[in-house]
Design brief:
The chain is of the alpha/beta class and about 325 residues long. It has a single domain, classed as P-loop containing nucleotide triphosphate hydrolases (Rossmann fold). The protein is built from eight helices and nine strands. The protein starts with 14 loop residues before the first strand and ends with a strand.
Length: about 325
């Protein structure tokens, strides 16, 4: 039987560490409202997610988040009363970070589905930072198309303004749409967010610290607007393997589409596809992970650590 690890008096820790078994017990009698069909719809390419994983890992997390939302709502009400303001509801913002191929998008989709079923958060919106990547034409003009996914490839100002407007209670906020088929921003298309109870923001670099401005001042960071953040973690060798496996699957599915940006990879042999995926990983995704993504793990409120089969093995939660 697992146990919650308790730091000794000599080594106090700001975190609570739990293994899978202890974390799963926290669901207690909370009902699971998703079906096998829901999980199949939400699962990412190559991930071995099933109802057991959802019940033992994501259901307790969604319940914990519902407590955080209720607490934040209560605190906001008290603060508004103290200031003599009308207590308008402020959206609760959750950031979800992690490497390419680690499963952060699936985590975001599962949490959206589960949280929307709790009574206090019926309206949950999910936005990925892919929509705030600069268009390919801009990246090419700047000579950084090969660094797509690195912090400098995003329109950080627009992303900050979007989340700030949602957090500020704007009636309607719009974000661009990104197509993984064409590997580019879709001209003229937008996602419209209208005063959600919860906004989930998912992306590689959402936990980046604030950047130093040219005048020496420190600007705002996206994470300044987060009420809770999750980092989906795994050993880099595992993520490398998952990335290559996903590439091989996409070669027979999305890449096979004639309009796909990666259609040229569809006809590769298995050996050629593995070599190509390995090259992309080692020259782009792994450097970005080590330099920019992995370094933000300590900024997360909660870390989900996965094992070789994509299953969450350990959970680390920052104490309040």
């Amino acid at each position: 039987m697992g146990a919650v690890s308790s730091p000794s008096r000599a080594h106090p820790s700001p975190y609570v560490h739990l293994d899978r078994e202890d974390w799963a017990r926290l669901r207690r009698t909370h009902p699971l409202s998703l079906s096998d069909h829901d999980v199949e719809r939400l699962r990412g390419v190559g991930e071995r997610l099933d109802l057991v994983e959802v019940e033992q890992v994501y259901l307790p997390l969604s319940r914990l988040l519902s407590f955080y939302v209720e607490g934040a709502t209560h605190l906001h009400r008290l603060t508004s009363g103290f200031l003599g303001e009308r207590p308008e509801r402020t959206p609760f913002v959750i950031g979800i970070a992690g490497s390419v191929a680690v499963g952060k998008s699936t985590t975001a989709r599962i949490l959206r589905e589960l949280m929307a079923r709790w009574p206090h958060t019926p309206k949950v919106e999910l936005v990925t930072t892919d929509g705030f990547l600069y268009p390919n034409a801009v990246l090419e003009r700047r000579g950084i198309l090969h660094r797509k996914g690195f912090p400098e490839s995003y329109d950080q100002r627009s992303l900050l303004r979007f989340v700030a407007d949602v957090k500020g209670g704007a009636d309607e906020v719009r974000s661009p749409v990104y197509s993984h088929l064409t590997y580019d921003i879709v001209p003229g298309e937008q996602i419209v967010v209208r005063r959600p109870d919860v906004l989930i923001v998912e992306g590689l670099n959402v936990l980046q610290p604030p950047r130093m401005r040219a005048d020496g001042r420190v600007g705002l960071a996206l994470s300044d607007f987060f009420d809770f953040s999750v980092y989906v973690d795994a050993h880099v060798d595992l993520i490398h393997r998952w990335y290559v496996e996903r590439f091989l699957r996409l070669r027979k599915t999305a890449f096979a589409h004639p309009e796909s940006y990666f259609h040229r990879y569809a006809s590769l042999s298995d050996d050629e596809a593995r070599a190509t995926a390995d090259h992309i990983w080692r020259t782009i995704n792994e450097p970005n992970l080590r330099e920019n993504v992995e370094t933000t793990r300590g900024r997360a409120t909660l870390v989900l650590t996965k094992g070789p089969d994509h299953d969450v093995r350990r959970i680390r939660l920052r104490k309040l």
